[in-house]
Amino acid sequence: MGxxxxxxxxxxxxxxxxxxxxxxxxxxxxxxxxxxxxRGIAPPFDALESHLTREEGxx
Amino acid sequence: xxxxxxxLQARRGWRGPRERYDLVREGLLALVVAAVLVxxxxxxxxxxxxxxxxxxxxxxxxxxxxxxxxxxxxxxTSETATYGPPYNDGTEELQAIGPFSPQGFLGVHTPxxxxxxxxxxxxxxxxxxxxxxxxxxxxxxxxxxxxxTAWATAASKAKADVSGNTVSLAGDDSGPIASMxxxxxxxxxxxxxxxxxxxxxxxxxxxxxxxxLLNIADGGYVxxxxxxxxxxxxxxxxxxxxxxxxxxxxxxxxxxxxxxPGPVRASLGYSDLAAIAYALPLLALIFFLPFIPGLRSLxxxxxxxxxxxxxxxxxxxxxxxx
Lengths: 59, 322
What we know:
The complex is a heterodimer of chains A (about 60) and B (about 325).
Chain A: H1 10-39, E1 52-56
Chain B: H1 3-11, E1 12-14, H2 23-45, H3 55-61, H4 63-75, H5 102-106, H6 114-126, H7 131-142, H8 145-157, E2 160-163, E3 166-169, H9 177-189, H10 210-217, H11 220-228, H12 249-255, H13 263-268, H14 272-287, H15 298-302, H16 304-308, H17 310-316
């Protein structure tokens, strides 16, 4: 496991924090945004009935 | 409201009023605000810069501690030498809850041989420059294990006396160890040990300081330095920077558990496994919050959504379904 997780190895920790973690975070944000574009936002749970469609998500 | 009802509600489409929304503009604004916040908070709360402890600063400030520590490395009695996984086959620092020990399970994957890596290796690299150390090393290498142990034990018991760069060890016969320590001390005070001869002999580019960090951490000097900056365990030191400056808040959730007393601490001490044993189940609680009855309904009472959708509620009121 030392080949990818050794807290005392500076290069490894910098790579993890500067490359791997930001890319992972960006990926999660991208998936989230695409999902919102596709499905639309979730309505507030006490919105007026007339403001909601019958069926599942639509934009 | 059941999870199923909530889910169906959230899945319903929106045909109410809409607003234009520029995501890029919003993102840029957030970036600027965050940058200003981070910058100004760093100006106020940023911790002062403290020079790192090196072999050189250690050996210059406390040569006797340096020699005593290196003798323990040679004798195989230091924390690193007896540590266990991931460095070697020792058991001193092996953490387990019952039979559960991820540390033991993962095994030795970053091998460190304290005597060889910290002492014999660096001295061997310097031997061609210094006939005296070459002779001492020949004596050490020619001796059998029993003889080396006898020398190392005698050296461990002896009081290390340092005058200038010359080390003398009183007491029983410690063979070539005093001579070896004299060279090692000179190499440390001169900065040679910080140059890669311990961490990565023969490598041009190296940022892996595993060996030297372990070696320096075995000494009393770095522990005293840490304590003087309020970084010791009793001071909740793992939570903060030097002095009273806050550390990394995103790590607090994990690091605070090192300091919390309780049954896990009682059986495991200030161990990583104890902190993980506390932090993980509670982290799971947050992770699975949307599925936990009661807790998942908190937003109904906190009513943060009323703030976010305030324009909507002002204009249309609510359906009073809640």
